[in-house]
Each structure stands twice: as structure tokens, then as C-alpha cells.
Design goal:
about 80 residues, 2 helices, about 25% strand, alpha+beta, about 20% helix
């Protein structure tokens, strides 16, 4: 069994996420989201969907990017 790095639960069905050269262990998707999802730089919501990246900055959508002064940003549909 392995231990979730967020909640510390020792669980037989943990899973690993390999990202940017690191290996993370979680017992559920909510813990993985808590640790891995970036925050929108405008409204601070965790981005669990597509999001919008502009010049190295992450936003939950084009509306928040524009609110931060980013121009020419559109949501992908």
C-alpha cells in the first residue's frame, strides 16, 4: 500500500501522477486536483479544465485573462 501525499491516507488503490520529472501519489482525484491543478491568477479558482495560458500566466478562462489586461485572448470551444 502507498500513502497519499495530500491527506496521508494509507490506501491499497493509490495511483501515481508523473509530471515534470516528479512522481506524485494520491488516493483520489480530489487530492490530485488539490495538489496539481494551477490556480487562476485572477479569481484564484483551481483550473481543472482547459484553462488559458498567456505568456506563462494561467487563467480559468479568457474572461479572467482579459480582466488582468491580457489582450487577444479567446476561449477554445
Amino acid at each position: 500500500m502507498a500513502t497519499c501525499e495530500v491527506c496521508g491516507n494509507d490506501y491499497g488503490m493509490t495511483f501515481e501522477v508523473h509530471a515534470q520529472g516528479a512522481v506524485h501519489v494520491f488516493d483520489c482525484f480530489s487530492c490530485a486536483i488539490h495538489r496539481m491543478a494551477p490556480l487562476c491568477e485572477h479569481c484564484r479558482v483551481q483550473i481543472i479544465g482547459q484553462g488559458v495560458e498567456v505568456e506563462g500566466h494561467w487563467y480559468c478562462g479568457a474572461h479572467c485573462a482579459r480582466a488582468e489586461g491580457r489582450t487577444g485572448v479567446v476561449d477554445r470551444v
